[in-house]
Design goal:
The complex is a heterotrimer of chains A (365), B (367) and C (296).
Chain A (H helix, E strand, L loop, with lengths): L2 E12 L2 E12 L3 E5 L6 H9 L6 E6 L2 E2 L10 E4 L11 H12 L3 H14 L15 H14 L4 E5 L7 H18 L3 E5 L2 H7 L2 E6 L2 E6 L1 H6 L4 H6 L6 E9 L3 E5 L5 E5 L6 E7 L5 E2 L8 E10 L4 E7 L2 E7 L9 E5 L4 E5 L6 E10 L1
Parallel strand pairs in A: 3-8, 3-9, 6-7, 7-8
Antiparallel strand pairs in A: 1-2, 1-4, 4-5, 9-10, 11-12, 11-14, 12-13, 13-21, 14-20, 15-19, 16-17, 16-19, 17-18, 20-21
Chain B lengths: L3 E10 L2 E11 L4 E5 L6 H9 L6 E6 L2 E2 L10 E4 L11 H11 L4 H15 L14 H13 L5 E5 L7 H18 L3 E5 L2 H7 L2 E6 L2 E6 L1 H6 L4 H6 L6 E10 L2 E6 L2 E4 L2 H9 L5 E6 L5 E3 L8 E10 L4 E7 L2 E7 L10 E5 L7 E3 L11
Parallel strand pairs in B: 3-8, 3-9, 6-7, 7-8
Antiparallel strand pairs in B: 1-2, 1-4, 4-5, 9-10, 11-12, 11-14, 12-13, 14-20, 15-19, 16-17, 16-19, 17-18
Helix pairs in contact in B: 2-3, 2-4, 3-4
Chain C lengths: L6 H29 L21 H7 L1 H10 L12 H33 L6 H10 L2 H14 L6 H26 L2 H9 L4 H29 L3 H6 L7 H7 L1 E2 L3 E2 L1 H21 L1 H8 L7
Helix pairs in contact in C: 1-12, 2-3, 2-12, 4-7, 4-9, 4-11, 5-7, 7-9, 8-9, 9-13, 11-12
Classes of the chains: A alpha+beta (365), B alpha+beta (367), C mainly alpha (296).
Chain lengths: 365, 367, 296
């Protein structure tokens, strides 16, 4: 796959603070890559540097192999859709779309026809004569997207384009955006703080924290083999459970002792003996009958009823554990018996916070 | 007697009816979520109950007393605004203490209350600082402190999590459940995110166009939606509503849609006929009830094209094109499905999920 | 954009700025320079830029009329001299009128602005109607004003002039303070109301501290307008009330002769109160002038 965008060691400092630190990333042609991280992690700054609005303090930005640091934004052939869409409110939708085509260099005659086609493609045909300022958020987003895609950019940059939309619309739009991207084979860099968006839409996800990229991998990798505690806790809804445990590392095996008495045995893993964390996903916890070996008791404190599934919050080891289950009648205070035995888990080193994946051998009481 | 009752409430702005005949009866200590799209009237409802807007019709009754004409400062209600509205020139301490100071509570009593709230919400380190130095989540917690320091008849929260990062939202949600249990106060919580509503509430009120579409427990609105709007709004993903024609051939009923046909089980047929259904109707299928298989089976005989798949780790959401219809299905993780492949689906339309195409109302409201 | 800082572009920018500075500051420079010139340099051609024999005589004449008479006596016949009033009275009168008119203008302006913003008083076009008043060139209404004042027996009274100044600066006050109030989210007052305050309390304790800077900035601008106002001072008074502007004008008149130096001295001194107030409230000015700074 050809590389469309390459960031090489770019950094940016704002009033004494490192917003972006020595960041390197490559984006292939036609790839959908999400830049995922909490507010303030530097993802929007990175986008600003790629777009050309923020000059980097150091490092190179290459588009299609050529260095673009010196180029002004309009010469970089990129498309940008920001959080607030920037639809021209005093112009009609038609004029907005026409603007995009004008930038591409289309002559007036051809433009009119092209606008109609664009409107059809983005389901904006009925809105063509409406004023930009009279549209609702989701309509504005479609106009902004259509206008930008009309210019056929080499690279499309999206900065949290869904954050102004209702949750209901976001869920629908995710799939549609992805479909659109694939049909156009458009290279996309998508900035977001929402891990569900990143996981559901991307070919690869780059997780950022405090100005640095912590891990770049496919959604599957990011979810099942997070590099460290931050990624493990950031990805996944409901979030990962962190259980304090005592690890006894031996030559051939490792024993993980959990509060309440259960012990898991796994093959040897590169971790020192001592206190660490066991990361368990809520849907990897089983509810079992009372006396089963390896089961730990945990009283039920809260139930989140999502209709098709329940998320139970049970008290364990001084904290609340989240367990995702099939709906059933349960009462608050009822004693649950949990087993972490589905063979997948993340051992998190308490000092380095690195994740050590393991495969369970068998369960001992 | 309910703690809070809203009767036929009406509010009009400049010829736009924001609230139209809203009725609510909320029990003491109940956690009610009002959920709806932007501009459905949720904030207007809260502000009218609080007294910031004067109702154009109807009544607001709190604790048995008619509050409709009372000014806000006499109402003993707390409201947490969407944009938080902490007083920018006052410290965290002064913000939280505000309601007590205005009520002329003695300074040492105020000190004790603020300290204890500060501990409970973990904002002690913010008490001496100004709001502009707080993060979004911290501002939220201080605003909550201000809202709960004076025990009142009603606590109202206007989209408290909306402006926060997704990851913080997910974790903070449970804090509201804990807060509710600790305070045992009547709470009205407004949001556009039905996931929050389902997670937090004792009952959910679905609001659209200034009118309440349905009030019920999370199970009620999920499994027994009253109309198409509620069915398509609640659930992640929400129910699939598909138009189809009911036809009878050779004594067997089936639903014919554009590009597919679903036979009705013979055992069910009797019940369907009893319902006296029109020919043109629609049916609903929950995404987790759609059976998807990589090759045709008895349970999944209908061919479909996979439009996209979202692998979320704990489950996968699949969008399929069945004939002219787009369906959403939810399947367990670790499945072989990917975009642009073919798959086979199976649906079983149930009589309680049949609805009228014209009115959008489900035929059998109770099952 | 980036890296395009060519030398000639920089040079052009600098030249333009220099020209602008010269144009803006030249009158002030001339004023101060003339105020220190002895009588023979007042009207010399070619013009004397900076006096070679600077003197404080002009200032003495402004503030001590007795010295002025001595001076006239000394200059026997060289100039026909009659000082038509003491500068002290002018400063006093201006202080009273300008301050009172500023206070009233800002007070009513704030109340009106609050009403317009929060309660939409008068409808959507009301603020524009106010602005229309300001668009009228004052000279067009001077004659009716004089007649009105004389009918109401307000001519040549402090109260009358204060009233006129207040009326004419009120649209400006309302317009400026309106934008500051709009910056304060309604929810802040709403929160104050919900948590127990009455509306007036909420305004004083919550809203006002946030617009204080803007109100002070408005007050300064209004004060400048009042202090430097000439037309109404001239036409609506007949000698009992004398403002600084009138006094300055008096130094170049049929009765006094062309006392440019003295006029310049009075002019220079009369800028001092404005500078003084500006300095005192400069902290608030910066905040007040940054319209729209509150981020949502």
């Amino acid at each position: 796959m050809m590389t469309k965008l390459k960031l090489s060691g770019i950094s940016k400092r704002f009033s004494g603070r490192d917003a972006v630190r020595d960041l390197s990333l490559t984006l292939g042609r036609g790839e959908f890559l999400s830049l995922l991280g909490p507010s303030g992690c530097g993802k929007s700054t990175t986008l600003g540097m790629i777009a050309g609005f923020i000059p980097p303090d150091a490092g190179d930005i290459l588009i299609d192999g050529s260095r673009v640091n010196e180029l002004s934004p309009q010469r970089r052939r990129i498309g940008l859709v920001l959080q607030d869409y920037a639809v021209f409110t005093s112009l009609t939708v038609r004029a907005n779309l026409s603007f995009g085509l004008e930038v591409k260099g289309l002559k007036r005659g051809k433009r009119r026809y092209a606008v109609d086609e664009l409107a059809r493609q983005f389901d904006l045909f009925d809105l063509l004569d409406r004023r930009g300022g009279s549209l609702n958020m989701s309509e504005m987003q479609r106009v902004a997207l259509a206008r930008t895609l009309a210019t056929e950019p080499e690279l499309l940059l999206l900065d949290e384009p869904m954050s102004n939309l209702d949750a209901e619309i976001r869920a629908r739009l995710r799939g549609e955006l992805r479909q659109l991207q694939k049909s156009l084979a458009q290279t996309v860099l998508y900035v977001t703080h929402d891990q569900a968006e990143a996981l559901s839409m991307s070919d690869r996800v780059a997780v950022m924290r405090d100005g640095e990229i912590v891990q770049v991998a496919t959604p599957h990798e990011i979810y099942h083999r997070p590099a460290n505690r931050f990624v493990a806790e950031f990805i996944g809804d409901p979030p990962l459970n962190m259980i304090p445990c005592d690890v006894t590392a031996d030559v051939a095996t490792t024993a993980i002792a959990l509060p309440g008495g259960a012990v898991l045995h796994t093959s040897a893993v590169p971790i020192a003996s001592g206190r660490h964390w066991l990361g368990v996903r809520p849907h990897d916890i089983e509810l079992v009958a009372e006396a089963l070996p390896g089961a730990v008791p945990a009283p039920l404190r809260f139930v989140e009823n999502f209709g098709a599934r329940h998320v139970l919050h049970a008290e364990y080891a001084g904290d609340l554990l989240r367990i995702e289950v099939v709906p059933a009648a349960r009462s608050i205070g009822e004693m649950l018996h949990l087993r972490f035995s589905t063979g997948r888990g993340l051992l998190i080193d308490r000092t380095s916070e690195r994740v050590v994946p393991f495969r369970q051998l068998e369960v001992a009481a | 007697m309910s703690a809070v009752a809203v009767e036929r409430l009406r509010k009009v702005f400049n010829k736009i009816t924001a609230l139209d005949d809203v009725n609510l009866a909320i029990g003491r200590g109940e956690f009610l979520c009002v959920v709806g799209r932007t501009n459905a009237g949720k904030s207007t409802l809260l502000k009218t109950i609080a007294g910031l807007y004067r109702a154009d019709g109807g009544r607001v009754i709190i604790g048995g007393r008619d509050f409709t004409l009372l000014p806000p400062h006499k109402r003993h209600i707390s409201l947490l605004f969407q944009n938080i509205a902490l007083f920018p020139t006052m410290t965290g301490y002064e913000n939280i203490a505000f309601p007590l100071r205005t009520a002329n509570v003695p300074a040492d009593a105020i000190e004790r209350r603020v300290r204890s709230i500060g501990q409970m919400l973990k904002v002690e380190h913010l008490l001496n600082r100004l709001p502009r130095t707080f993060s979004g989540g911290e501002q939220q917690r201080v605003a909550i402190g201000r809202a709960i320091i004076q025990p009142g008849d009603l606590l109202m929260l206007d989209e408290p999590l909306t402006n926060l990062d997704a990851s913080i939202r997910i974790r903070l949600r449970i804090e509201f459940k804990k807060l509710h249990r600790e305070l045992a106060q009547t709470i009205i919580y407004v949001t556009h995110d039905q996931v929050e509503a389902m997670s937090l509430s004792d009952r959910v009120a679905v609001l659209d166009g200034g009118r309440i579409q349905q009030i019920g427990s999370p199970d009620d609105v999920y499994h027994r939606p009253v109309n198409r709007f509620v069915a398509e709004f609640i659930g992640s993903p929400p129910m699939n509503i598909i138009d189809a024609d009911l036809s009878e051939f050779d004594g067997r009923l089936s639903l014919i849609g554009t590009g597919f046909s679903l036979p009705v089980e013979e055992s069910e047929g009797q019940r369907w006929r009893q319902m006296k259904l029109p020919r043109r109707l629609a049916f609903g299928v929950r995404p987790e009830r759609v059976i998807v298989a990589p090759s045709p089976t008895n349970d999944a005989p209908i061919g479909a094209k996979i439009l996209w798949v979202e692998h979320l780790g704990n489950r996968s959401i699949i969008a399929l094109r069945m004939g002219e219809v787009t369906l959403t299905a939810v399947v367990p993780p670790n499945n072989p499905f990917n975009a642009d492949r073919r798959a086979w689906v199976g649906l079983r339309p149930e009589p309680q999920h049949l609805l009228s195409r014209e009115t959008g109302v489900f035929f059998q409201l109770a099952s | 954009m980036f890296g395009e800082d060519k030398a000639w572009a920089r040079c052009l920018k600098r030249t333009a700025v220099c020209i602008a500075i010269v144009i803006a500051f030249f009158p002030i420079f001339w004023l101060i320079s003339t105020s220190f010139k002895p009588i023979d340099e007042w009207q010399k051609f070619p013009p004397v830029w900076i006096s070679s024999q600077p003197t404080l005589q002009n200032y003495r004449i402004v503030f001590a009329p007795k010295a002025a008479q001595e001076f006239a006596a000394k200059q026997q016949g060289a100039i026909g001299y009659k000082v038509s009033g003491s500068a002290w009275k002018a400063f006093g009168d201006s202080a009273v009128v300008a301050t009172a008119a500023t206070v009233l203008s800002v007070l009513f302006g704030t109340l009106a602005a609050y009403s317009i913003v929060r309660f939409h008083t008068g409808g959507d076009s009301y603020p524009f109607q106010f602005l229309m008043v300001r668009i009228f060139p004052p000279i067009a209404v001077v004659v009716p004003m004089v007649i009105l004042f004389s009918m109401l027996r307000l001519s040549d009274t402090y109260f009358g002039l204060i009233l006129a100044y207040t009326a004419f600066t009120l649209p400006f006050s309302i317009w400026m303070i309106r934008s500051f109030i709009e910056e304060v989210p309604e929810e802040l007052e709403g929160a104050a109301l919900i948590y127990g305050m009455r509306p007036l309390q909420a305004f004083l304790k919550v809203t006002f501290p946030l617009i204080r800077g803007g109100v002070l900035a408005t007050a300064l601008f209004v004060f400048i307008l009042n202090w430097s106002e000439f037309l109404f001072a001239l036409t609506l008074t007949t000698g009992h009330v004398v403002t600084v502007t009138l006094q300055v004008a008096n130094y170049v008149s049929a009765s006094s002769g062309k006392l440019y130096g003295v006029q310049a001295a009075m002019g220079t001194v009369s800028t001092l109160p404005v500078i003084f107030f500006g300095y005192i409230i400069q902290r608030h000015l910066v905040r007040g002038l940054s319209f729209g700074a509150i981020k949502r």
